[in-house]
Every structure is written in C-alpha cells, then in structure tokens.
C-alpha cells in the first residue's frame, strides 16, 4: 500500500520550465552560503563555529538540551542548505552576542581569560596573550569607578564624584512550562497528596498538572525503579532535584519565621539555631507524610522503611509546591506541621527535648537506663528516664539516642506547662524597633546605591529603608561608629547575609530545577547537577549590582573586597525577600535574573582536569609554595603531570593577590585547560614557548593514553571539543582538517602513526550521534501521536535507517535509477534525463542507498498526488546531482523532514528542498591518501556508517507507526 495516500498536501504550482532546471538549482544551492540573522548575512562557516562555541558553553552549564540543539543545528549549515524555520529567541540572542565579539577574541568557550589586573601570573616567566571569555561565562563587569585610593579626598583637591550606572530594569518571569509526568507512574495518587495538604493548610485549589506532579513528588526512588519507567520516562535525578528544591524551601520558610521574631547577637547563633530547627522540621514533615500515607515505596523498601525515606518524600512534595508556584501553600504546610519548632512545646514534640529535660531537672538529677531487644541486625532499644524526684518515662528507638530522645519527650509531656521553659533561645532578643536609615548625611555613593537598589528591587516601602541601609553596612563601619549605629537601631549586615545566603540558594535551585524539568523528565547526572552559590558567585552578583561604592566601611576597609561585596549582595537580596517574599520567584531585577541564569552548575576546573586526566590514564598532584606572613600568606600551586609512558610535565601559576591552596589549585587547573583549548580555537600562535611545550605534552598524552571509553566519557569529549570530535559530529570536515594540521604541526612528525584506538573512538562517537538513543533518527522514529507530521517523521526515520543499514552496493548510479524507473513507471509518469556522461564519481558506501530511498520517497508521494516525476542527473566536480521535480503537491511539507534527516545521518549526502523540486547532492569519496594520519583517521571514520546494523531497521519498524487510513 502506498504510504502517501491521503497524506500529501496538494497545491497549485507554476508550469515547469524544463530548460536548464538542474543547472539553475545547482547554481542557487552554490550561492546559498550565508544566513540572515537580524538583517545581517553571516557565512555558514562562522555560524557553525559560533554554534559549536555556544554549545560548549551550554554543555559546561549542563544545559544539555540547548547543547544538543546547537550540535544538530550546526549540521544544517552546509553550503546550499540551511535550517528549517526560524531560530528560537534564546539562541538568536546568544548568537548575536557571540558574533558581535571581535574575531580575534571570538575563540570559543575554552579560551583563556585569566590574565587580568590583579589576577594570577606565571612564576616561570613568558608573556601571555589575552583571550576574551565567551558571553555565557564572562565575568559580569564591575561598574566603572575609581579605585578606593583615588576616592580618598586629598588635602589639595578632592576627586570628582562619578555616579555608578546600574541596570534598573525589572523582569517578569513567565510561568514554567513543565513536562507532564507519565500517568502510568503517578496514577491518581496526586489527589491523595492534595487532600492531605488541604487538610493541613486549609482549602487549596490545584490544576491537573500540579496534581500530577504531586503524585510524582510522593514517589520514592525504589517505587520508580520497580515501575520499569526509571530509564525511559523519569530518571531518579528528577526526584533528587525535587528533594533539593524542597530542602531549600524548608530553609527559607524556617528562617523567615525565625527572623520575624528573634534577632540574635551573633550570626553563629542564628546559623546554629537554624540548623537545629531544620533537622527537627524535616523529622516532623516525615512523620506527617507517614501519617497521611503519602510515601509510595517499592516492595523491598516498604518491608523496613527508614525515617529518611519519609523525610525525603516530604521534601519532594514541598519541592513540587515551590516549582508549581504554590510557595505560600508550602510555607503554610511547613508552619502547620512544624508549629512549635521554635519552642519546646508538647504539641510540636519539642525542640531538642534532651536539652530541655536536662535543664529542667538539673537540680534533682536525671539519668537514663537502656535495654535492647531483637537480633543484632534489627535491634530495638528502650530507654527509661528517671529523675531524682521519682518521675520516670519510657521511650523506644532504632538506636540509643533515638530511644533517649523519645523518653525525654515523654517525660516532658507529663510536666505542667508552668515548668516548661518559655525563655527565648540563648543569645537572642525579640525584635522591638526596626532599624532606621542614618539621619546624618551618609556618603553620596551610599545614598545613590540605596536609591538605585530601591528602584531595582521595587523597595518603595518605608519600613524596608532601614533594613536596606543595614544591608549596605560593613562591620568595620559599625565598629568605628558605634554610637551612631545604636542611635539608629543599626548593626552590621552579617545576620542579613546569612538570611540572604539561604534565599539565594533557594532562588538558584528553583531556577535550575525549573529550567531542567521544562525540557523533560529524563535528565542525566550532569543535567541534574545542582550548584550551591559560593562566595565567589555572590561576589559576582555584588559586582553586577555595583555595590562596592555604596557599602559603608571603616577607614581601613576596602568596599571592593570580594567578601565584602558578597555579603552586601546577600544582604540586599535578603532585604528584598523580607518585603516581597516568593514574588522574587516570579518577578525580580534583570541583573539578578541574569546572574541566576549564568550560574555554572558544573564541576570546577580542578574536577574537570581530574576527569580529563583519568580519561587518558594520566596521574597528577599539586605542590605548593607559600609566601607572605601568616595573615597575608599566598600559595602558588605547581601541577605535576605524568602520562601513561611515564613522561612528567610541571606547570606553575603564581598569584599576585592573597590566595588559598584551593584557589591556587583552581587557577593552575584552569590555566592548563585554557592552554589545551587553544589548538581547537586556532590560538596556538599566541602561545609562548613554555605554553607550546605544555600543549604538545598534553596532546601526546591524550593520543598515547586512549583506551576504552564509556558513553558518558564520549559525550563529554564531544561537548568539550576533545580531539576534534565536535568538528566531526557537525560534519565540518574542512575545520577538522585544519585542526588536524595544527596538531600535527605542533607534534612535529607529520608521518607519525595514529593509534588505532583513535579511529575506533571516532567511529563510536559518530555512530552514537547518527543512530544512538538521542540521535535525530531515533527521535523521529519515536515521534508520538497520530498526526500527519508525526507519521511523516516516522516514515522518514524508517527510510533513512534502511539506507544506512544497506551498506555498499555492487551497482552503479544508472543501475539504481533504472531499477527504480522500472518499478515506478507503471504507476505514474516518469521522465529521466541523464547528463552524467563519463564524469568520475566514486560514491561513499551509503550514497547509492540514499539515492534509491530518495527516488522511492518522491515517487510514492507523486503517485499519491497523481502527478508525474521528472529526474535529471549530472556530475560536477566529483559530486552527483539528482534533481527530482514534483508537481501538484506541497513538497516542503512532504520532504523537509526526510531531507533534513538524510543530510544529517548519512555522510557526504545533502538533500535540499525547494518549492517544485528536491535536489540530492552526493559528494564523492574525498582523497585521504595524501592526508596526514590524524586527518585521515577522522575522515575515514566519518565516511563509514558503522553502527547502523539491520537490527536498527527492525527496531524502527517495531515503532508504532499509524497507517495513512488510520490517520485520515
């Protein structure tokens, strides 16, 4: 049965012009070598390079969906081709920024960017060239202002004041478009969870998607594994991300409740009390989940459920509430379940009952007796608490501490309320008068900063003005102006900074989880990695907010110090959160939103280098040299590398500023990674002699240390551009030849043999890209739904998979066309014009099968539309051009997906679609004998179609493909 009956879209077309049609099509394709981006013509070569750089940026941030899109799209920019449809807005903006950079600086995500004022420098000498960091990783530029020394008034003439310009725009965030959890996993359990939340918090309405997500949130990983959906529908990393979001939700709810009542003297007191309350709250929430039957475990886990299981499920449920925009409901739930966590009350099971019992019975004495029961692997402990006054109570638990806690809690329940402690936590006082702004004229820079922050965060409430002043007050200023600070109920910003660190962590987690889960429910480990903002991250936020000038500091303190700016940034966000609360999840300053988007949820340079070294069998360690006094000590790290052949290389990077061992490790590791990246970015000529020696050593170590690699390692290689793999994956053979030439020139032996493992690696990577689970072929084959577009894509996947699996044919181009003509001519009109003459054409093994499938595809579509087919053939410059003319049907709707998949999957094969024809270009086998061994190994692997066995076609046929009659 013809699969196109009832599917092809008919349309009126102009009368065909048979004269020179194939020549015109070839010429039009030859001229199509640039893309119009916002009115500017960008050569395809630059587009491919820019997409590879952006893809590596996204991969470094574990945004694998964006990385995969860039890799796929780069393969569409071949001469004569181009993408189908418009580029998405998020990519257009990043491409525009990438292309606007100067060509000399546009050297890729991996280019070197450390050499800057006050930054690290090499101890072994040698100049270095500056390399600009890519847009997505570029440090947010500090607003221009004179250095602190220049701002101090001189005895003669004070320097003029220069107001810092800040970005004041506010951004409304669209609602998250989350993927839908599979009904086979969640069922109707979400309604059970919603009912439990409503019973605890009051009436609450939720839409269907939120209810489905609540069912997913109540799922323990053991239940997910036993469901059989943990690989194809939902990965366990989804539950882990919900857990982390729920944990940060608990943190902000508890700290909000705490700071509304108490103000400790020291930040350590606040941190300690918060940690204690968090532990107790998680325990109570776990009990709530068990009491309402919300924990869905696997059969094995349910036989002996641990308390941590219920606590984790409760956190996942809270994570779902926060993710779906119900933060207020999550807050009410935590407060309702943990209602007494701030006091040692009976109803809330107490906060640290052991400590309270010890304090109450300190005079009369308190002791515990223990006993146990059960086998060694499953003991139950019993504790009996006895007081000197004759009181006693029993408690049971899985260990002595749990039993002792239960006994103390039971003992406290028997006491009259008058004996229970009602005092405030140690070292705290109730908040009476809020802080006030300083009445005496503060520095102008401070006033301007407060004014800008008020606009930026929309802090127009007078009650928050004093708190914002406190956020911009360093401890050194309070120390030097104690009387003024007491008069205005002010203090330093340390308490606010602690609060802000929890808020920022929650904002970052919320943004990350939403961004990942909007792309699907099958993230891998790298995609699901969560990054807790460190001081260096919040320091970048402070620089982006331009807070250095506005911080009130003492005479000997520099407001531009990273720690000072980081504390101020955290404090400002805390002040905004106290006024707006969860509104910051939906609406926030553009500067803050950009910073959250740019947080790098990735391994630090030390970890990346460790992973890279292990991949190639290298070992390494760090040696340190310390300089300076104890309180001003600086470390320089020397990296000592050893490859599989025992060759050793040392590399040292020193720092001109005070640094720790960890900072020295990161600086040295990043420098090595940057030098290794220069060969891909065509920056080898900018390196010093010492840097070239290191690069040569690293390349040799990679080639010598190649061995068996895992799928994950190969994905990391492609995303990082290791050994030119990204160039082969995108089909950019010219760029790969140039890369191979640079490597061979650097190694110095053009005739050196290439290890067989490298060719095998290239073949594995290309097979996974073309036919693997995440390939375009498999994605089209798995297209869901019975619509026309889905049916066409599934048919295209079957046809291209069949062409890839056939392998080489012992026939000629004319044999293929003649066989097709015999089969097609009896069903529809066929005209064939052969202008190949005796031009040489040496096909790649899969190309004749591609020609046969393209002719069959177009012939069946023409037959369904009742129109003739015209075919013209010619060979120019060792390239076979097959022009297939179709009339009376919408060729783009019929052939776009097939042409795109054919071009992407089969080597040296381009399929171009126009309004009235399809142009198939089969580029003959390139000459590889004259190439250097490294280039030949890559191109030979590219031309092969290993990894497409006949089993692939059977797999594609097993996909549920609807017939045309069923579609109609």
Task: Give the structure's gist in a few sentences.
The chain is of the alpha+beta class and 968 residues long. A hairpin with a 2-residue loop joins strand 1 (34-37) and strand 2 (40-43).
Short key terms for the protein model shown above:
alpha+beta; five-stranded mixed β-sheet; 18 strands; disordered C terminus
Structure characterization notes:
This protein has 968 residues and is α+β, with helices and mostly antiparallel strands. It has 39 helices and 18 strands. Strands 14-15-16-18-17 form a five-stranded mixed beta sheet, with helices on both faces. A hairpin with a 6-residue loop joins strand 11 (619-627) and strand 12 (634-642). It is globular. The model is unreliable at 12-17, 103-155, 343-351 and 958-968 (pLDDT under 50).
The secondary-structure class comes to: alpha+beta
Spatial strand sequence of the major β-sheet: 14-15-16-18-17
Overall morphology: globular
Mean pLDDT equals 81
Q: Count of DSSP E strands?
A: 18
The proportion of residues in beta strands is 5-15%
Pick out the low-confidence regions. 12-17, 103-155, 343-351, 958-968
Number of helices: 39
Radius of gyration: 34 Å
Helix content: 40-55%
Largest sheet: 5 strands, mixed
End-to-end CA span: 15 Å
Topology summary:
Layout: H1 21-31, E1 34-37, E2 40-43, H2 44-60, H3 64-74, H4 89-100, E3 120-121, H5 148-151, E4 170-172, H6 183-186, H7 189-201, H8 208-217, H9 221-227, H10 236-259, E5 262-264, H11 267-291, H12 299-302, H13 307-323, H14 327-337, H15 353-360, E6 366-373, E7 380-387, E8 392-397, H16 400-413, E9 428-430, H17 444-456, H18 465-471, H19 475-480, H20 482-487, H21 494-517, H22 535-544, H23 562-580, E10 587-589, H24 590-598, H25 605-615, E11 619-627, E12 634-642, E13 648-655, H26 661-677, H27 689-704, H28 711-720, H29 725-729, H30 733-747, H31 756-771, H32 776-781, H33 788-806, H34 813-824, E14 830-835, H35 847-865, E15 869-876, E16 879-886, H36 891-905, E17 909-913, E18 917-923, H37 933-943, H38 950-958, H39 964-967
Helix pairs in contact: 2-3, 2-4, 7-8, 8-13, 10-11, 10-13, 10-14, 10-21, 11-13, 13-14, 15-16, 18-23, 21-23, 22-23, 25-26, 30-37, 31-37, 33-35, 33-36, 33-38, 34-35, 35-36
């Amino acid at each position: 049965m013809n699969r196109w009956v009832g599917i092809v879209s008919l349309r009126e077309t102009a009368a065909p012009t048979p004269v020179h049609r194939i020549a015109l099509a070839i010429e039009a394709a030859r001229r199509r070598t640039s893309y119009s981006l916002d009115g500017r013509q960008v050569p395809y070569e630059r587009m491919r390079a820019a997409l590879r750089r952006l893809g590596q940026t996204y991969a470094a941030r574990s945004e694998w969906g964006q990385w995969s899109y860039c890799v796929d799209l780069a393969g569409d920019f071949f001469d004569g081709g181009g993408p189908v449809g418009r580029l998405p807005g998020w990519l257009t903006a990043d491409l525009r920024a990438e292309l606007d950079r100067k060509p000399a600086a546009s050297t890729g995500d991996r280019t070197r960017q450390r050499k800057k004022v006050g930054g690290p420098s090499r101890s072994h000498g040698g100049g270095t060239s500056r390399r600009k960091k890519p847009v997505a990783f570029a440090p947010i530029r500090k607003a221009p202002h004179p250095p602190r020394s220049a701002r101090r008034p001189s005895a003669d003439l004070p320097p003029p004041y220069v107001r810092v310009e800040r970005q004041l725009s506010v951004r409304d965030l669209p609602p998250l478009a989350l993927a839908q959890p599979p009904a086979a996993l969640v069922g109707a359990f979400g309604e059970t969870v919603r009912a439990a939340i409503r019973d605890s918090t009051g009436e609450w309405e939720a839409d269907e998607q939120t209810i489905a997500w609540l069912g997913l949130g109540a799922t323990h990983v053991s239940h997910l594994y036993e469901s059989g959906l943990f690989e194809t529908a939902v990965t366990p990393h989804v539950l882990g991300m919900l857990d982390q979001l729920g944990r940060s939700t608990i943190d902000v709810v508890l700290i909000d409740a705490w700071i509304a009542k108490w103000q400790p003297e020291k930040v350590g007191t606040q941190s300690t009390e918060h940690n204690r309350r968090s532990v107790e709250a998680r325990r109570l929430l776990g009990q709530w989940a068990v009491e309402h039957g919300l924990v869905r475990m696997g059969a094995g886990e349910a036989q002996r459920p641990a308390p941590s299981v219920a606590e984790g499920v409760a956190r996942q449920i809270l994570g779902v509430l926060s993710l779906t925009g119900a933060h207020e409901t999550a807050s009410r739930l935590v407060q309702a379940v943990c209602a007494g966590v701030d006091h040692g009350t009976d109803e809330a099971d107490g906060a640290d009952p052991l400590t309270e019992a010890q304090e109450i019975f300190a005079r009369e004495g308190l002791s515990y007796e223990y006993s146990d029961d059960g086998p060694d692997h499953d003991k139950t402990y019993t504790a009996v608490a006895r007081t000197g006054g004759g009181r006693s109570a029993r408690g049971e638990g899985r260990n002595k501490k749990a039993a002792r806690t239960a006994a103390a809690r039971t003992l406290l329940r028997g006491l009259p309320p008058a004996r229970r402690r009602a005092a405030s936590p140690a070292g705290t006082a109730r908040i009476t008068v809020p802080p006030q702004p300083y009445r005496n004229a503060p520095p102008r820079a401070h006033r301007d900063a407060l004014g800008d922050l008020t606009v930026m965060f929309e802090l127009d409430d007078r009650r928050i003005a004093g708190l914002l002043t406190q956020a911009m007050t360093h401890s050194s200023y309070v120390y030097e102006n104690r009387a003024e600070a007491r008069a205005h109920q002010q203090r330093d910003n340390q308490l606010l900074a602690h609060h802000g660190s929890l808020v920022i962590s929650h904002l970052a987690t919320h943004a990350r989880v939403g961004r990942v889960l909007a792309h699907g429910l099958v993230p891998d480990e790298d995609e699901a990695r969560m990054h807790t903002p460190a001081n260096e991250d919040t320091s970048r936020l402070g620089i982006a907010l331009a807070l250095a000038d506005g911080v009130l500091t003492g005479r000997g303190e520099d407001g531009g110090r990273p720690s000072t700016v980081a504390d101020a940034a955290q404090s400002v966000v805390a002040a905004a959160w106290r006024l707006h609360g969860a509104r910051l999840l939906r609406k926030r300053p553009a500067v803050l939103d950009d910073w959250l988007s740019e947080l790098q949820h990735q391994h630090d340079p030390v970890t990346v280098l460790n992973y890279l070294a292990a991949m190639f069998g290298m070992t390494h360690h760090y040696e340190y040299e310390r300089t300076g006094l104890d309180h001003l000590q600086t470390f320089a790290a020397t990296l000592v590398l050893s490859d599989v052949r025992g060759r050793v290389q040392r590399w040292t990077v020193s720092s001109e500023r005070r640094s720790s061992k960890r900072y020295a490790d990161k600086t040295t590791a990043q420098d090595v990674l940057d030098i290794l990246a220069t060969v891909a970015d065509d920056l080898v000529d900018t390196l010093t002699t010492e840097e070239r020696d290191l690069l040569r050593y690293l390349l040799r170590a990679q080639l010598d240390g190649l061995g068996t690699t895992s799928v994950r390692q190969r994905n990391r290689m492609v995303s990082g551009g290791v050994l030119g793999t990204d160039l082969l994956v995108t089909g950019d053979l010219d760029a790969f030849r140039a890369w191979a030439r640079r490597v061979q020139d650097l190694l110095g032996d053009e005739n050196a043999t290439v290890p067989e493992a490298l060719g095998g690696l290239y073949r594995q990577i290309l097979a996974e890209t073309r036919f693997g689970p995440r390939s375009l072929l498999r994605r089209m084959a798995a297209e869901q739904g019975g619509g026309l577009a889905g049916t066409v894509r599934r048919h295209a996947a079957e046809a291209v998979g069949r062409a890839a699996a056939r392998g080489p044919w012992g026939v000629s181009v004319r044999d293929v066309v003649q066989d097709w003509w015999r089969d097609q001519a009896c069903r529809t009109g066929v005209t064939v014009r052969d202008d190949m003459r005796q031009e040489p054409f040496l096909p790649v093994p899969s190309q004749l099968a591609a020609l046969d499938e393209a002719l069959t595809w177009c012939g069946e579509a023409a037959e369904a539309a009742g129109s003739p087919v015209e075919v013209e053939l010619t060979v120019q410059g060792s390239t076979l051009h097959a022009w297939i003319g179709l009339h009376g049907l919408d060729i783009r709707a019929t052939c776009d997906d097939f042409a795109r998949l054919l071009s992407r999957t089969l080597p040296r094969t381009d399929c171009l679609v126009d309004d009235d024809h399809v142009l198939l270009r089969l580029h003959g086998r390139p000459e590889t004998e004259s190439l250097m061994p490294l280039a030949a190994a890559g191109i030979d692997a590219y031309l092969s179609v290993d990894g497409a066995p006949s089993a692939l076609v059977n797999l594609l046929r097993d996909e549920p493909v609807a017939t045309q009659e069923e579609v109609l």
